Amino acid sequence: MTELTIRPALRSDLPALGRLGASLMRLHHGFDADRFMAPPEDVEAGYAWFLGTQLAAEDAVVLVAARGEAVVGYVYAGLEPMSWKELREAAGFVHDVVVDEAARGGGVGEALLTAAAAWLAERGAPRVLLVTAEQNEGARRLFLRVGYRVTMVEMTREL
User: Fold this and answer.
1) Which of 11, 37, 120, 124 is the most buried (most CB within 10 A)?
2) Domain limits at 90?
3) pLDDT of res. 2
4) In what order do the strands lie in the sheet with 128-130?
5) What is the CATH classification number for the domain harbouring 24?
6) pTM above the 0.85 mark?
């Protein structure tokens, strides 16, 4: 098996990132169609466009996991300021972590989360937060395994 490389995302990675981001959006919408937005037409292009806007951001990072030329996952993380609304100090935040289904179980997610945490720590983040869908048991197991703890529970009520 080709060695796994974690590196900053390139513009040439955007089609793969769009595909992976779209899979994340579809997964969450499938968990709860009322809570998570429906994937729009050509969601892959939309997600690729969005992540492309983050490539040059100084307070965000998009890292890819690659085996040879194939992108098998990515993490999108950033620095967030102190928030009175959320009762927290400044922190790092993992917005997305996605691993291609065929590459799961091989340490890709852990490698991406470790690299994102290192990037955030280098920039002074004292901690890293993330949120995940309650139904996403695989992701929850991964997050617990790499040292995250449950601190908040989101609840939703439709109006």
Assistant:
1) 120
2) 4-145
3) 84
4) 4-8, 60-67, 70-80, 91-99, 128-130
5) 3.40.630.30
6) yes
